[in-house]
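If I may wish for something, please sit down with the protein I am sending here and say whether tokens and residues agree:
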Amino acid sequence: MAGDEGSEALPPLRERRRAAAAQEILDAAERHVTEQGPHALSLRAVARSLGMTVQALYYYFPNRDALVTALITKAYDELADAVQVAVDAADDAGTSGLLAAAESYRRWGMANPERFQLLYGAPLRHYAAPAEGPTTQAVRRMGAIFERVLFGGYTEDQLARADVPELSSALLELAEQLPPGGLGSLPPPAIALFMSAWGHMHGLVVLEVFGHTDFLGEHQAEIFRAAMRNMLQDIRGRIPSD
């Protein structure tokens, strides 16, 4: 029919129902993690909350690792989405993308402590993320955002001449072996700067999310903001301007 021209065919009904059921299971598992913590994740409890058997759940997620992988990927994607939105808004306002990204990263962690722990806390026992799987891709997406806000506008030559302590031959060799894309596309001095910046930012967020800096009270945000500004100033001072 003429009215159907240009319209996209929907997936078969069975596939749509399967996708909807898988999403319902994923949402239930996410609620379980939020309420009980990631290390209490139980497929039996998730299935029970949905009025289904574990055997039925396995039809959608063949094992615990598949469900955990989906949970981790979803959390990384939502965190990356939040960071990207903040960066885009900062670009429109003419403010620092790095500071906006770091602030958004912190806010997401504070608002979702259990899911943040799923990503960055103690590894779940007997879980191994699939090599080059969706979690790896999600991590690379996050890294790419921070790489852009750190080094956007600098040339490869400028990054290669960044002022960092002399790097060992073993580290230089490792840098050459990194896959293209992500850190593998950066000169070794920029890799060192990136990892230092990431560790600084992420470490402060971990301390706060896990309650280790509660004694600072409402001043935690102020200290984090000052630390990020100092870090950005240091990085910019280490990269030649020409």
